[in-house]
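Example record for the data management plan.
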Amino acid sequence: MNDKRSHRGRILLVEDSPVISMEAEDRLKEADYFVVGPAYDMAAAIDLARNEQIDAALVDLNIRGEKSFDILQILDDRDIPFVIISGYADWSMPKEWEPRPRLQKPFDHKTLLETIEMLISDDD
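Corresponding structural encoding:
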């Protein structure tokens, strides 16, 4: 989609649950963010993370049974801030990703938007 309107930022959304993805996408659009994706699988997420203009990202920790560490690395290499989201109580991950912002699913819309605003303002 080539939307010429000005947005507050371009947010990559990587989430394999269609319900959570649609809900997050709706909230981000209502807050005037442009949603890149959403990506429902690793191949699409890696492609978008590598090739799209992105200001920040929401990345599910587990995408269809795979950990999303490759996506996180691409975003980190590009200096794109991200928040890791998960519905699992087990947040085990490599030490390098532990200090990153996280959201536990289900998350409320206010927390989602506050987290995105924090990522984008920290990037300025």
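Summary line stored alongside the record: The mean pLDDT is 89.
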